[in-house]
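Section 5.1 Outputs to date
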Amino acid sequence: MNEQAALVRRIRVWLVVFIVCLVLSGLTAFPLVHELRWADQLLASSASPVPERAPALMEWITRVRTGLDEADARHPFLLYGTDWLAFAHLVIAVAFYGPYRDPVRNIWVVEFGMIACAGILPLALVCGPLRGIPFWWTVIDMSFGVFGVIPLLVVWRMIKRLEDDRAAGWRAAEPSPLGASASAR
């Protein structure tokens, strides 16, 4: 396998990991009510150390579960917003098929993803306090942007290297004007 093919393979592996994470993140946004009920019951069980070791986490999970239960019972249309959130994750994941197919041509999708990851930080810092989200949970939310940008940055650098390698290959394949005039003599 030549160096460019190996580089494309590595790019694709990183992209598949990123796509799978986006899809999983999106799919978990659909059943929020059931997930929070399950998480609350699991964390509150007698076998769990969470109530004693992380009471703030336990209180937050219970509060979110209560809020989702009330929204589901009285205002289920509010949960439609999380359905759209889930759908957006799935659509964005599909967009990353472009750089999977042709990394150099579709590097803009990777750059878009990096911008989106960077945008998570100000969104969480501004909207978190406005919505009464505890700061420690805001930090968890921001970590998605920080950790999400890492594979994209790795992919972006590999695509740039691939682009440079291809450009160097094309330059080497073209006859140089000096070489042409020297052979004509």
